[in-house]
Specification:
With about 700 residues, the chain is α/β, with parallel strands linked by helices. It is about 40% helix and about 15% strand. Helix 12 packs across helix 13. About 45% of the residues are buried.
């Protein structure tokens, strides 16, 4: 009998998975909690609509002021030759939405004969310089660079309308990416279509505007990425680097290919040329020089292509032939591509699994891989997608990914590795990956072993139905493990469990990933207790309820005035009801938890069941905040009682441990220091680097025997 097509199998697996998770949720969360999750899962997704373009209203000229800093970080150099109305519109856009970055504007007039000479001196805050004679774009830009005072040079055409936030985004790129040597903006046509998302250069020296006429929101063009060059219409470069290179090369005078040449010179020095989609600039292409390459100044584009191709002949050998059109499959030239699929977009400010996933993507990018993220629900969460895109992750979503089967059909062939998070996501994706990406290594990221967590939940609840459900999860999860080339777990305890049950499978430990933090208040200035954990996770609900009802009363009697801060998204009514006195504060979601990590004296992790490595414990230790935890909460974390952490399981013993630690400064200092060191040794990005290289960077696929 013929097997069903992958698309049909995908939708069948999704339906069965939703049904199973719904029944499990009914048993653990009840009808009300399950209904809230169903509403969240099937809520209508908003349309993906970008911010509308800002275009200044057409008006008669009147003098106005543009902000200017006496100590600018960025010098915006605008070369002009006639077209005064465009120059005024550009300056009005900057004045209407002034950047936060300290800046100055240097306008270099290359011998205009229109109103420019009358209007520009009447605009406050602009440094206006008029050249003695017309010398062309390159000469005007180099003159402006010589006059600039900022550490960054930002070259901007006068036929542009910079959008709010454009300059801040350009400048921030150099902070976020220390190897950046040149950063270009996203250029948009006045009608909203994409003009350029960085440039592509072919082996013969010809160039291509990547993304031309597409949507600026298309995931292929919406993340920070390396580009062959960026248009001189809007680009930034450190002034010292520009000077060391010798500025725009005069051999291309009066214009064309000088920006491409500059990008190659930057890369020759070991630095990166980056495209920044958050720096949006409307460009009325062709206003100054036209578009006809057979006549006028535009004809220099044809001549200069030959000059450029000869100068960079050796470097161009690594570039694609002109017949090979740029695509998402071939643009990360020479870089292995990794696809990561999870249930939804990660929210690292809300749960430790998301933080681990985002930090893994950071690590993969540091190791030179191109990372693509696809949420199985295809929903765009702009707050999550934005930071990932700034890392350089290509993030897909509706409407650009209409369905998972269609998306895999179009993109599956470009991936060297596909990582699927959670067994129910992997069950949906596996048939699609096998069909459309047979070349890819398949990696299953358990997040934690779900069947282990479910079994422990059933033990605490004494529920035979839950135990039966855990057994079914075990069969499904182990089936996924057998089908994949590599399985990732978060603790040595889980690896040892799988080594006993499934000794033939390749299992690697990739635990939580955290940065450590310096500072924080000293012992004497810290107050109170804190718990951090999202309440969509049933073990956290049980932990807080048990702590407040069975542990905290004893603490409150011994430490009058001490408060318990409960932080975590979506606390259910039973948790909110625990805040009956001023000693228990249920905050819900907190955007910035750093003040609680650096100001509260002791963190508690009173988990009675669960699996995996507990991010709440890592988080506190990364901040130098000592933790009192249960045995379950510190499982597989390389921690020792009274060295890195205090461990207690019974209610009275847990309370006594908190009281003792709260009063003992010497013990507090010892646990704080050892906790930070534990995170550095076992849960930092550097600690995970070797595993990441084995699993994702090694080009040899290790098939399951």
């Amino acid at each position: 009998m013929r097997s069903p097509m992958p698309a049909a199998r995908f939708f069948l697996q999704r339906a069965l998975g939703l049904l199973r998770r719904g029944l499990a949720s009914l048993r653990t969360r009840g009808l009300r909690g399950t209904w809230e999750r169903v509403r969240f899962q099937f809520r209508r997704a908003p349309e993906a609509i970008g911010a509308p373009l800002y275009l200044p209203a057409v008006a008669a000229f009147a003098p106005f002021d543009v902000p200017a800093s006496p100590q600018p970080r960025a010098s915006i150099v605008i070369p002009v030759y006639n077209h005064a109305t465009h120059t005024i519109a550009c300056l009005r856009a900057i004045a209407a939405h002034p950047p936060r970055t300290p800046f100055e504007i240097v306008v270099v007039d290359d011998g205009s004969s229109d109103e420019t000479i009358d209007w520009l001196p009447r605009i406050g805050g602009v440094r206006y310089h008029r050249r003695a004679a017309n010398g062309g774009f390159i000469a005007a830009c180099n003159d402006g660079a010589a006059l600039a005072r900022g550490d960054l040079l930002v070259f901007l055409n006068n036929d542009t309308v910079p959008q709010p936030g454009w300059l801040d985004a350009l400048c921030a790129t150099f902070d976020a990416h220390p190897q950046a040597g040149l950063v270009g903006a996203q250029l948009i046509y006045p009608d909203g279509r994409l003009q350029e998302a960085g440039g592509v250069v072919f082996a013969d020296g010809g160039a291509w505007n990547y993304g031309r006429f597409e949507s600026p929101e298309d995931p292929r063009y919406a993340s920070v990425r390396d580009a062959d060059y960026c248009s001189g219409a809007a680009l930034a470069i450190p002034r010292a680097l520009f000077t060391a290179i010798g500025g725009f090369d005069a051999r291309y005078a009066p214009a064309y290919y000088e920006d491409t040449d500059l990008a190659f010179a930057v890369r020759e020095r070991g630095l990166r040329v980056l495209y920044q989609p958050a720096a949006r600039v409307v460009h009325d292409e062709g206003t100054t020089s036209g578009t006809d390459t057979q006549s006028g100044i535009k004809a220099y584009q044809v001549r200069n292509r030959g000059i450029f191709a000869e100068r960079w002949r050796d470097a161009l050998r690594a570039h694609a032939p002109a017949a090979r059109l740029p695509s998402a499959a071939n643009q990360p030239r020479g870089r292995r591509q990794v696809l990561i699929v999870d249930a939804s977009m990660p929210r690292p400010d809300r749960d430790s699994a998301s933080l681990r996933l985002v930090n893994l993507m950071r690590l993969l990018i540091e190791e030179g891989l191109h990372v693509v993220f696809l949420p199985a629900d295809l929903r765009l969460d702009a707050a999550s997608a934005g930071p990932m895109r700034q890392l350089g992750v290509e993030v897909w979503h509706r409407p650009f990914a209409a369905s998972l089967p269609r998306w895999f059909g179009a993109h599956g062939g470009r991936f060297d590795t596909i990582m699927m998070c959670r067994h129910y996501v992997a069950a949906e994706i596996l048939p699609l990956a096998r069909r459309h990406a047979p070349q890819a290594r398949l990696v299953f990221d358990t997040i934690d072993l779900h069947y282990l967590r479910e079994s422990r939940t059933a033990d605490v609840a004494g529920d035979d139905l839950l135990q039966h459900a855990a057994s079914r999860t075990r069969l499904r999860e182990q089936g996924i493990i057998r089908a994949c080339d590599v399985t990732l777990v978060v603790s040595t305890a889980e690896r040892e469990l799988l080594a006993r049950d499934m000794p033939q499978q390749r299992v690697e430990v990739l635990s939580n990933l955290h940065d450590t933090h310096d500072g924080g208040l000293p012992f004497g200035q810290r107050r109170d207790l804190v718990f951090v954990g999202g309440f969509r996770h049933p073990p956290n609900v049980d932990a807080v309820r048990w702590f407040v009802q069975s542990v905290f009363p004893r603490i409150a009697r011994a430490l009058p005035g001490v408060r318990f801060h409960c932080i975590g998204a979506e606390p259910p009514a039973e948790i909110r009801a625990l805040a009956a006195t001023e000693d228990v504060i249920v905050h819900g979601y907190v955007a910035d938890i750093a003040p609680y990590m650096t100001g509260c004296r002791v963190a508690v992790a009173p988990l009675r069941f669960g699996a995996g490595v507990k991010g709440k414990v890592n988080l506190s230790m990364a901040y130098g905040q000592p933790v009192v935890a249960t045995s379950c909460a510190v499982e597989g974390m390389h921690l020792q009682h009274d060295l890195d952490v205090l461990v207690a399981d019974a209610a009275d013993a847990f309370a006594d441990a908190v009281i003792a630690l709260y009063r003992d400064e010497a013990r507090w200092q010892r646990l704080a220091a050892n906790g930070v060191e534990n995170v550095r040794r076992h849960f930092s990005l550097d600690a995970a680097r070797e595993v990441v290289r084995r699993v994702f960077v090694d080009a040899r696929r290790q098939d399951v025997m």
